Structures are given as structure tokens and as C-alpha cells.
TrEMBL record:
Species of provenance: Fibrisoma limi BUZ 3
Domain (HTH araC/xylS-type): residue spans on this chain: 171-269
UniProt protein name: Helix-turn-helix, AraC domain protein
GO molecular function, one term: DNA-binding transcription factor activity
UniProt lineage: Bacteria, Pseudomonadati, Bacteroidota, Cytophagia, Cytophagales
Superkingdom of this protein's organism: Bacteria
Amino acid sequence: MTEIFDNIRKLYRFYVPTNELAEYIEFFSESSAEETYRHVADNRFTVRMFPSWTPTCYINLGEPYQMVVGTSRYLVRKEIDVLLLRNSVVERFNLPTDHIFTIKFYPGGLEAVLGVNQVHLVDQVVRLETILPAELIQRIKRLTAFEERIELLESFFLSQYLSRKRADHYQTIVSNTIGTFEASGLVLNPGQLADRTFVTSKTINRYFHRVVGTSPKQYLSAVRVRAALTGYVANRNQFSPDDFGYYDMSHFYKDVVRFTGQKLSRLRK
């Protein structure tokens, strides 16, 4: 299964924060044995995810599994939990025995909540206990209900966030820039965005490298193609490339191939 092209979310339960964490954590999720069996039965399959520059924690509640991050393959043992930046393609090999709890942060969210700069995570698979207390991880694993894990983690993250709450100039500028880009219909370039936020293009570039780990051009390009491809897959008959800042369909097609390595013709099969 391939992210965006296929609805991989149907295999998981989701919870989206509605408190102060909503600005920094996109969602909590947990693989559902029932939904996985309903959609794929006992078959092995893979889930392929494209770059998103969103720090993501994977807490292993089940058996060992394998994943490929970029060009490297990893065996994640039963007792191992990991954190990825997802700055490259990630592919996870799934088994019926898989049971994984996921925490996905927005760009800059890891730093706002836990004080960890995501730039240092580029091209790495990090042991989660270097970011979260080992005892907290074990408590999460001992709990039996999705809701209980959510309650424990939200309480911990909120306490961490509130203890260091302050105006983070870098993160604020990056968040405002992303928001302005989305509000513009995904059409403004980094120079135009810099003008809207009253800073220079050089400053915007420096802030994105500090908070996200890549240039504003690369990150915003990924935002646009992900949004456009999701819209195309949902309703290709009413899809218009203009709605996502593309000149024409050819421009959109080229961006999809560059981003995913796959052609849209696969959807017509």
C-alpha cells in the first residue's frame, strides 16, 4: 500500500489533540488488528510513505518488524521503539502480528513540546528512549487501551510544553509562513512569503533549515504536491491543477513523478 495513492489510514485508530498540543502534534494513532484483517486478511504487505518532514514516534506494542528508511533497511525488535524525521521515503513491512502506536508531530512541534530540534534527526533512525523517558515508554506498553495511552501521553506532553512555554521566534515565523502559504492557495514562492512575514528571503531560508531541516522551497513543494495528489485521488474528475498553484496538468504530473517516483497512470488500472 502506498500513502496518498491508497487509504492507509483505514488500518489505524486515530486521535487528534484539541488542546494546546493541537498546534504541535498532528495525531496519535494505533494499528487496528480488526481493520487490518478486514482489509488484508493474513497477507503480508508493505506501507510506503513519502517525505513529510514530520517527526514521528513508533512505539512497538507487538512483534518485530522491518522498515526501509531511504536506502537503509532496519529490523525493529519487539523491545525497540524509534523516532524518524521522515525526510525520505519510509517503507514498513507489515505482518498480522504488528501492533504499533504512533505519534506524529508537525514541523517544529518536537522542539516546541520537548525541546528537541528536528534538524538533528535528518537521515536517522533514533532510539525513542533518547527522546522520551524509558519509564514512560514502558508504562505506555503496559496499558491495554488506546484511550489510556492517549491520556498518559497528553498529560506528559502538556506538562513538558507548559514548563518551557515561551515565544519561540524561529518556530513562530516558520508556522506563520506555512499558514500563509496554505492560505494563499499554495501559490506564493519563498520570496513572496518572506515579504508577507516582513523578513528577508535569507532569513526565511535560515529559519526553515533551523526548525524543519530543509529549505522552504523543498518543504513547501512537498506540502503542495501532497495536497494536490490527495485531491486528485479523492476526485480526479473535478480536480483542477489551478486550485493547487500548478500551471497545468503537465506541471502537476511532473511534480507527482518527482515526489513519488510513480506515474498517475497507476491509478487508472
